[in-house]
Amino acid sequence: MYSYDEKGNVKVRYGGNVRLVETVAEIFNFTPRFMEPPGGSLWGHQLPNGSWTGMVGMFERDEGDLGIANLFISALGGRNEHQHYTAPFGQEVVFDACLCAV
């Protein structure tokens, strides 16, 4: 999660995922550089030409090594061809609701 200043720049990054990366960086002695996907595209989707937007696209273009996000572990959509998942360390239940006239 992020806290932004009045100009829309990231001021503070916080949350369990950020803390996890900071802890791993401390243990393995590296300095993480946090980047957001361009254009607010977040996780990403595949374009008709086969390329990807978002974080998945950043992996495809070798622009990043490690991503933190609430991605579903799924082979659907081909994301697993460009990223590898850790063991889950949290879980959420997602329901889709449909209001149907009877």
What order do the SSEs take from the amino end to the carboxyl end, as H and E?
Answer: EEHH
- The number of distinct β-strands equals 2
Overall geometric form: globular
Task: Note poorly predicted spans.
Answer: none
Structural class: alpha+beta
Q: Strand content of the residues, in percent?
A: 5-15%
Oligomer: single chain
State the helix count. 2
**Average pLDDT, all residues:** 79
Distance between the termini: 41 Å
Number of domains: 2
Task: Walk me through the structure.
The protein has 102 residues and is α+β, with helices and mostly antiparallel strands. The chain folds into two domains: 1-34, no CATH class; 35-102, no CATH class. The chain contains two helices and two strands. It has helices at residues 16-28, 54-60; strands at 2-4, 10-13. A two-stranded antiparallel ribbon has the order 1-2.
Layout of SSEs?
Blueprint (H helix, E strand, L loop, with lengths): L1 E3 L5 E4 L2 H13 L25 H7 L42
At a glance:
This protein is α+β, with helices and mostly antiparallel strands and 102 residues long.
Keywords:
102 residues, alpha+beta, 2 domains, two-stranded antiparallel sheet, 2 helices, globular
